[in-house]
Amino acid sequence: MISVGIIGGSGYTGRKLVEYCNIHPEISDYTVYGHNSSGKHLSDLFPEFDNIIQNNEISSIDLLGEHDLYFIALPHGEALNFVPQLISAGKKVIDIGGDYRLDSKEEYELWYGKKHTSPDLLKSKVYGLADYQRQDYSTTNLIANPGCYPTATLLGLLPFIDSFSEEILTVSTVAYSGTSGAGKTPKQELMLSEMDGNVSAYNLNNHRHQPEIIQMMNIFGFDSPYSFSTHLLPIAVGIYATTSIHLNRAVSQEDILRKYKSFYSESPFVRLRNIPPQLKWVVGTNFCDINISIKDKILIITSAIDNLIKGASGQAIQNMNLLLGLDETMGLLNKGVKNVPNY
Questions:
Q1: Where are the domains of the chain?
Q2: CB distance 152 to 175 below 8 Å
Q3: How far apart are CA 238 and CA 285, in angstroms?
Q4: Which residues are catalytic?
Q5: Is the pLDDT of residue 343 over 70?
Q6: Maximum Cα–Cα distance for the chain, whole Å?
Q7: Topology of domain 2-146+309-323, CATH
């Protein structure tokens, strides 16, 4: 049994972490830490948890207790204030933010506009794309949890790049997110009166998740032009990614599916679909649903996830299980929390 600290538990991601930690069979206790929320109780932030989850008080983020493992769900830049000390103290850390995802200090500072104060940890961390089963979690105490867009995009792309990178001319991903991906901070453009019946592109050619995606693709041998376009949907939860790949020769659908089935043969949370997935199939779950369609020299990959679960807290729990040598589905399948909304 382990003790867990959740640093930054008042947001959507923190809420999901509380929900999962509460029912995980190997977690003996957990404490939520916050800045402005310290001194409040969980029911003050999440009234829906009444009579479901113990109404614990939120502790000050400046008074971290002794735990075996810490989840950090803070805005970018803030995890840098905690991770080095926790790692030096021999603690296990899963950072759900973006501070340790990129391998390069220079890339981080370019895309995030902040100085990286512990660049040595960028090389020693594991990029926790949990369903990519070829990583060695025994080499580190620090897991960088992938972003939501990269999770959906990379799970759809990597098996193809792994086997057919030399056949690729160009790759383009058009992805859509629910508004919960922007967090709980009020913003005019995310108001219901602005989003209802609306779709809009944002951060074109400038999204922080793009270098994260390219970094992982390059590891698999990708060396072609790539474009990444993000959009907001008038929904709260979900990521839908459509990736188009132009090839220099035709590849059979049977060969592609054979590679995908082999690549994900030990990945219980990846489901290959015969038709393009729908968001409602994955919302509220830790699954990523993927469909492959090829005609002539054009391959189209569609993938769907819940951005708060597979794209954040659910994958973080899956990474915790892998880090601790547990069954990776523990606490994620049949999770048992009833009557709690998905966001």
A1: 2-146+309-323, 149-305
A2: yes
A3: 10
A4: 148
A5: no
A6: 62
A7: Rossmann fold (3.40.50)
Q: Which pLDDT score is estimated for 37?
A: 86
Record: fold of 149-305: Dihydrodipicolinate Reductase; domain 2 (3.30.360)
Q: How far is CA 87 from CA 4, 139, 278, 292, 342, in A?
A: 14, 13, 40, 40, 32
Strands (E), 203-308: 226-232, 239-247, 270-273, 288-295, 298-305
Separation between Cα atoms, residue 157 and residue 212, nearest integer Å: 13
Helix (H, G, I), strand (E, B), or coil: what is residue 130?
A: coil
Beta bridge partners of 243: 173, 301
The answer to whether the CB of 14 falls within 8 A of the CB of 46 is: no
Tell me, what DSSP letter sits at residue 192?
Answer: H
Averaged pLDDT score across all residues of the chain: 92
Across 178-285, the runs of DSSP E, i.e. the strands, are 200-202, 226-232, 239-247, 270-273
Query: 281: which residues sit within 8 A by CB, 6+ positions away?
Result: 287, 289, 304
Q: What is the pLDDT of residues 312-322, one digit of tens each?
A: 999 999 999 99
